[in-house]
Design brief:
Length: 158
């Protein structure tokens, strides 16, 4: 029997954006709960090493280095996905562009770290940077009573 993916991409995007509580999605429809376990650290390391070993075996068999394709593709996916799950809001998180170049430069460490952080974010165990209010556009710290951000001028939602 084929195993089904526990959540659709639409539900995942809305759940990360915080739209479950607004009535457009229910938690039972999306099944986003403690059961949504994607990747623990040891699994992320094993997956990355498995990809690397597979590319080495492919090089031995077909004499083509697949890592030239695998590293940029997985790094690009991780950078796009990091912007969707808002990685920069969490402790030890960086923006998608910085993450792309860091992961591209040091893939063997950056890719499993991202899979591990993604797991922590989706299960709700990742720590936010601070509880201080920030601008929704530029992430600048602002006081709670400010209407417009002093840095970028963006009007803050109530």
């Amino acid at each position: 029997m084929r195993r089904r993916w526990p959540i659709s991409p639409r539900c995942f995007t809305k759940a990360v954006a915080g739209n479950i509580g607004d009535g457009s999605l229910s938690a039972t429809d999306c099944r986003i709960s403690c059961r949504y376990k994607i990747m623990k650290l040891w699994k992320a390391i094993l997956l990355t090493l498995g990809i690397w070993v597979g590319s080495v075996l492919a090089y031995v068999l077909i004499h083509r280095n697949l890592m030239w394709y695998i590293v940029p593709a997985t790094t690009l996916w991780a950078a796009i996905d990091s912007s969707q799950i808002q990685l920069r809001r969490y402790r030890n998180g960086v923006g998608p562009v910085a993450f792309f170049f860091l992961c591209l430069w040091w893939w063997i460490v950056g890719f499993p770290w991202y899979l591990w952080m993604r797991h922590k974010i989706l299960t709700g165990t990742a720590e936010l940077r601070t509880n201080d209010p920030r601008c929704v556009r530029c992430e600048e710290l602002i006081s709670p009573d400010v209407i417009d951000c002093p840095k970028c001028g963006w009007r803050q939602p109530k």
